[in-house]
Amino acid sequence: EKDVNTYEQRIIEMCTNNRQSLDINFYHINSVNQHLAVWIVTAPSQIIPLLDEVAYSLACEIFPNYHNIFQEIFVRIKDLPILDSLRELRHYHINTLIKVRGVLTKRTNVFSQLKRIMFRCTKCGEKIGPFNYNGQQEINDIGACQSCQSRGPYAVENSETLYRNYQKIVVQESPGTIPPGRIPRHKEVILTNDLVDSVKPGDEIEVSGIYISKFDFGMNVRYSFPVFTTFIEAVHVKRLNEIE
């Protein structure tokens, strides 16, 4: 009950300050519902969006006008019990929630990434969609228009198409953690929404995120067999020199 009141207070504080991120301690989840804690670690891509929806509905209950400011809330899972090394990430980490530490060495500009797209049939004007886009699959087969049965052409309905902030950073092993004589390894991390520009090059950071693999056509041609490149989609980012 104490934790529930604590997070309700944090939601009130978040909404009052016009923020979208709600930090949730993994130990609190594990102490209340161990099954949910296991699901978050093993299937974060499916569970975390559900947590986002629940948090948003609760925020809208407390602040009925919150939906006029933001359309979603992002639940940030922090303080995972296991710390993984960048050089020890393997295939069994894919699609799970992991925690790594390192030094931010490179940061790109902030881009707008497609999140949800709506199409309009150019022959009859019927709207088709929306289609959710997570940056990995391609939207090829839209299908036939339900109104005129034609298969296009389709135009993007810009007024109902949503985008999100997108930034790519490179995290490298901290100098003190590299075995003697070894070259430091690095990993790309994707920052989205309000995580962009939250850290800068030179910061030593702790990243909790989803370890994702994506087919790499260039490496496939180079090595003559299917190769998947991997990256981390950040859920929570913390500067290690930051005092909470």
Q: How would you portray this structure in words?
A:
There is one protein chain. This protein is α+β, with helices and mostly antiparallel strands. Helices cover 23% and strands 34% of the residues. It has five helices and ten strands, in the order H-E-H-H-H-E-E-E-E-E-E-E-E-H-E. It has helices at residues 2-16, 26-32, 34-42, 44-62, 217-223, and strands spanning 21-25, 74-78, 97-107, 111-121, 127-132, 154-156, 162-172, 186-192, 204-215, 228-239. The strands form two sheets. The chain has a five-stranded mixed beta barrel with strand order 3-7-8-10-9. A two-stranded parallel sheet has the order 1-2. A hairpin with a 5-residue loop joins strand 4 and strand 5 (127-132). Helix 3 (34-42) packs across helix 4. The chain is globular. It starts with a helix and ends in a 5-residue tail after the last strand.
State the distance separating the first and last CA atoms: 23 Å
Cα-atom radius of gyration: 21 Å
Beta fraction of the residues? 25-35%
Poorly predicted regions are none
Q: How many helix segments?
A: 5
- The run of helices and strands is HEHHHEEEEEEEEHE
Residue-averaged pLDDT, rounded?
86
What profile does the largest beta sheet have? 5 strands, mixed, barrel
Number of E-state strands: 10
Sheet with the most strands: spatial strand order: 3-7-8-10-9
Residue share in helices?
10-25%
Shape summary:
globular
By secondary-structure content and strand pairing, the structural class works out as alpha+beta
